[in-house]
Amino acid sequence: MLALFARDIRLSIRAGGGALTGVIFFLAVIATIPFGVGPDLNLLARIGPAILWVGALLSCLLGLDRLFQADREDGSLDLLVLGNDRHMLALTVLVKCLAHWGGSVLPLVVAAPLLGLFMNMEPIGIGATALTLLVGTPAITFIGAAGAAVAVALPRGGLLISVLVLPLTIPVLIFGVSASYGATGDPAPFLQPFLILAALTLFLAVLGPVSAALALRQSTD
Amino acid sequence: MRLIAENLGGERGGEAVFSGIGFALEQGQALIVTGPNGSGKSTLLRVVAGLLPQAEGRVLVEGGGEEFPSVASACHYLGHQNAMKTALSVAENLRFWRAFNGEGRLGVEEALEMVGLAGTGHLPFGYLSTGQRRRAAIAKLLVSHRPVWLLDEPTAGLDKASEERFAGLMRGHCGDGGMIVAATHLPLGLEGAKGLVMGEVG
Fold first, then answer.
1. Exposure class string for A41-63: b at 16+ Cβ within 10 A, else e
2. C-alpha distance from residue B62 to each of A7, B3, B69, B145, B180 (Å)
3. Claim: this prediction has a pTM higher than 0.95
């Protein structure tokens, strides 16, 4: 299993991997917002956490279609499915998700504080947003895995995956953003939405890989 | 141990491709599946491996023990694709499959030497020619042990010398008590192998 994790991380870093694509897209989205909204610094600071979250969410969806499709195209997916008796397929999917998160999504979380400066956010707001992203983005990857597994047989599945997955990620977005606001605004709480966000991630860490494994078993034609 | 298929049927897109196929392989035996294009050779192999659902009948291994309780756990499947990553080096690919599949047999360098690719381990898989890629994929069969080899057109793209070397590897596998089911158009050089011709009935 460690070998699978190491292989997928390596692939995401090597040429053709998606590690940088997501970060550049994230940068492009956040950098254009101040131009669109105008030079109202207070407004930018107020919408900052929400914009960072939406940007990170969209960047997460960008590389999801390759999660299983690359393995399917070169035949590796057949062998991963055949290995079910040694490594339960759901566990294999979980490891692939973690590697995808580490290779393509973690860079977004690392870049988020820097991009927060573009939005004139306070240090505490930046810290809270980065923390909620760190805890919340794995949930997006897990939901995305289920979508990617359903669409694995389709040649242009990328858009379909986004459409399938986006509605399901809304709760993650809502609790992520409200926790980020809770850290800066006084009346709103931080801890409660943050804990719900963590619970969502843990819940989806089970549900996502299990449903993705089910879909993958049906797709080996 | 034995590999048994009884009254097996397979379908593609809801249409039966073949039905009533049966065979039984003892240790050390090989089965060569032949037949025209579209007669269901690849489908048969995928049904045997469990990658496609059986429309009817069943496949099982007898006497696999705890190590190989099911057909999927007892077989190597070499399909049309090589299941190797072009961005990784040959040795990295093989090391991954050796660790993932378990039951390590030959070392990576040793396996590459057996298929005549000694000294290419550091090259990215994408730099190899078609025949070399196929040979690297064959090396994958050697790095971890499985009693059953399911081979779909294994010699596609191989030159004469490599074909003979591969025939030697298959004879060695059978000699060790392994079993082979191969779908092919080309003679594989396996004497005493059973034959199964698809697409004659129905």
1. eeebbbbbbbbbbbbbbebbbbb
2. 35, 6, 9, 18, 15
3. no
Q: Do A73 and B81 touch (CB under 8 A)?
A: yes
Q: Which domain holds residue A31?
A: 2-218
Cβ proximity of A22 and A62 under 8 Å: yes
Residue A106 Cα distances to A100, A114, A115, A153, A177, angstroms: 9, 14, 14, 27, 18
Work out how many domains chain A is built from and give that number.
1
Domains assigned to chain B: 2-197 (3.40.50.300)
Q: Do B51 and A74 touch (CB under 8 A)?
A: no
Which chain A residues are within 8 Å of B148, Cβ to Cβ?
Answer: none
pLDDT, mean of residues B177-188? 87
Chain A residues with CB-CB distance to B102 below 8 A = 86
Largest CA distance in chain A: 59
Q: For the sheet containing B15-25, what is the strand order?
A: B15-25, B2-12, B56-62
Distances from the Cα of B68 to the Cαs of B47, B59, B64, B146, in angstroms?
A: 18, 14, 5, 9
Q: Is B72 on the interface with A (CB under 8 A)?
A: yes
Q: Please give the pLDDT value at position A16.
A: 64
Residue B14 above 90 pLDDT? no
**Residue range B18-53, pLDDT digits in tens:** 888 888 988 888 999 988 888 888 889 989 988 888
Q: Report the share of chain A in percent with pLDDT over 90.
A: 54
Instruction: Answer whether A11 sits within 8 Å of B100, measured CB to CB.
Output: no
